[in-house]
Amino acid sequence: MPDENKNFSGDDGRMNNSQQDNYVQWLENLNADSVAEVGGKNASLGEMIMALKKKDILVPEGFATTAKAYRAFVGKNEIQKKIPALLKKYHQEEASLHKTGEAIRNLFYQGEMPEDLAEAIGAAYQELGSRYNKTDVDVAVRSSATAEDMPDASFAGQQESFLNVTGESALLKACRKCFASLFTDRAISYREEKGYDHMKVALSIGIQKMVRSDLAGSGVMFTLDTDSGFPDVLLINAAWGLGENVVQGTVNPDQYTVFKPFVQKEGFAPIIEKTCGSKKKKMVYAKTKPTKNLNTPKEEQASFVLNDREIMQLARWGAQIENHYNTPMDVEWAKDGEQDKIFIVQARPETVYSQKASGSMKTYTLQEKGECLVRGLGIGKAIAAGTVRIVKSADQIDMIEEGDILVTTMTDPDWVPIMKKAAAIITDQGGRTSHAAIVSRELGIPAVVGTDNATKILKDGQAVTVTCAGDAECQVYAGRLAFEEADLDLENLPQTKTRIMLNIASPQAAMRWWKLPCKGVGLARMEYVINNVIKIHPLALTRFDTVEDKKAREQIEKLTRKYADKSEYFVEYLARGIATIAASQYPHQVIVRMSDFKTNEYADLIGGSQFEPKEDNPMLGWRGASRYYSPDYEDGFALECRAIRRVREKMGFVNVTIMIPFCRTPAEADKVIKVLEKNGLKRGENDLQVYIMAEIPTNILEADAFAERFDGFSIGSNDLTQLTLGIGRDSEKLAPLFDESEASVKRLIRMLIETAHKADRKVGICGEAPSNDIEFAAFLVEAGIDSISLQPDSMLDVIKRVAKIEQK
């Protein structure tokens, strides 16, 4: 095999005929200035080879036909004289878009390839074969549209690609099809909509050595989060076989998310998400035709396509590519199963979030509850209600009216005219980088993809509400439910001396709210990840052999089937969830509260009832700190500690501070600190800070003693209020009496702030009170609190109020 990025010049046998050079250019001789000649796709490949080969980024060798080659074909067959007449009939509504496109494409199919152009392509193909020591080298043939007088125009997704093309005759046939694909129905519609002159657009063809990803896997990579626009991550999708299934959304792929700022740091693997997709189909080489789709073997469906080393290699390349182009990028990659190497096969600028204004956000709130019919991966943080229209093919555009909910198996570029009429999109197949997901983001409408069964569960004509505004996976509810839409203006907000932080539980929500003008997370609740993602009681993993419930054992076996050590299942998912929250606010402090389930809540986890006592008042029972050093739970707490260590030491998020809840006495604090050290979390080492929740009056009455043991305090206003006033926080009868603004509660808070500051300790609040009551937030500022941690939807109002108070 040759050096994939070797710069071949005329001295090594490359054809030097000037006419051939007008028709064909080798990729390594192209760069970003070649767009008008070979289109953005091919120019980008050449730019990467030229600029990034020294960084060991592999790009398959190949060549591109030029815009002049296209015009030579069109001129030879006098196609340019026939197209205007066909388009005129379309404009006068004498012919449909489909018939017009078909008629124009037939002109190309029936056209004759100019002899000198055929020779130029054939000679380049033979030379490519000699570079790989193959007579008939297998190539990918991709279209790259361009226009000389508008080189920055984007024609992504409008033309065709052909894979595993072998032999000169097959290549020339594929080239003719590529030329014709400049007039696909969707390409004609796109140019009509944008006002582009059809006759001023040309088509370049990129011919590259095929990467044998049919023997391995392939996918796409975005250098930002495609759903929220968060710029500090790389999103990678992967499936077995050739990459068309991922691009077209015909499979639910693996998904990996990597924290970009750490990818070049030695010793860290900041993979903050790894989700194994079902990957039910894979595209491979075929004998009677270039490719075919097969059912993916069960073992491969249950396995990740890439290992951690490969994920990190791709992530490093993605960061380097983005740095070179100085813009977020959309990258296609493929792994060669024969060479065991990864290649970049395409790269283009990301065109949705990178162009959005950063000064505003829309928020949506569902105001009613309903029956959940379908769940899936959500795209776009929005809600839409409408009538279900189940559409099976793109030519059924008349079935859907403006504002309907489009439900289908999958979409491709031919579906765009239909998708533009929809209020929301629901698909059976696809991931976050599928066609349906990308187009829905461009259109600004919500989508639920990868549902598996939406076309079977939902009924045509049924009223539904699609919500992608929540923190968890997105849902489709029966009926038209009421929801509220609001605009958040993030511009021109005042600065505050009081630190404003965020309360968060869901990793997905952390990504969603990254734009908010806060500095860190004052409360990250690990219970959300344990309850909604892990679902298993930690002791049912550490003591699995003792689990008696047969159903629970079966559930645990199923959830942990990929893990030889069942405890690793808990640690990995918890670590990735915490890391995602930490990444969303890095380098600002993220305070992670160790588990604070009550016994009844722990008992509801899979396998949990066996390990939990039944308490009459769990709120005041075995919770928080008292569990951590208890022989009845210490191995469960050890898993939490392992997850925190992994986040800080292996992933690099030293901005994570841990917080101990419901610590009743200084003596109990000493026991917890000892257990933390036993599990490798020693306060002060590697800048580790340990905070205490101030939620029991004793935390305040003995604040000087607690200040000796902890680095800071965070007020839990709900528990502090109930324990000060003697009112259960969930009591309906006493709800009118439950008030954080009572004088006694405020007096305790003032006492804490004064004592803590004397000991040079900071005090924040993470309870609900300042989010719900702006006047209470004003009191906190006046009392000298260091930070206020808020719910996302109350943040802007509180910031404005705090700034006014500080000015006084």
CATH topology of the largest domain: Dna Ligase, domain 1
What portion of residues belong to β-strands?
A: 15-25%
Major sheet characteristics: 8 strands, parallel, barrel
Q: Spatial order of the strands in the main sheet?
A: 23-24-25-26-27-28-29-30
Mean pLDDT: 90
Based on CA inertia axes, which overall geometry fits?
elongated
Instruction: Report the end-to-end length measured between terminal Cα atoms.
Output: 73 Å
Number of helices: 30
Helix proportion range? 25-40%
The secondary structure category is alpha/beta
Number of domains: 5
* CATH hierarchy: architecture of the largest domain: 2-Layer Sandwich
**What do we call the CATH homologous superfamily of the largest domain?**
ATP-grasp fold, A domain
Radius of gyration: 30 Å
Q: How many β-strands, per DSSP?
A: 30
The top level CATH class name of the largest domain: Alpha Beta
Low-confidence stretches: 1-17, 148-156
Explain what the structure shows.
This protein has about 800 residues and is an alpha/beta fold. It folds into five domains: about 10-210, ATP-grasp fold, A domain (Dna Ligase, domain 1), CATH 3.30.1490; about 215-355, ATP-grasp fold, B domain (D-amino Acid Aminotransferase, Chain A, domain 1); about 360-490, 3-Layer(bba) Sandwich (Glucose Oxidase, domain 1), CATH 3.50.30; about 500-690, Phosphoenolpyruvate-binding domains (TIM Barrel, Alpha-Beta Barrel); about 695-808, Phosphoenolpyruvate-binding domains (TIM Barrel, Alpha-Beta Barrel), CATH 3.20.20. Helix content is about 35%, strand content about 20%. The chain contains 30 helices and 30 strands. The strands form six sheets. Strands 23-24-25-26-27-28-29-30 form an eight-stranded parallel β-barrel, surrounded by five helices. Helix 5 runs antiparallel to helix 7 (about 170-180). The longest helix has 20 residues, at about 565-585.
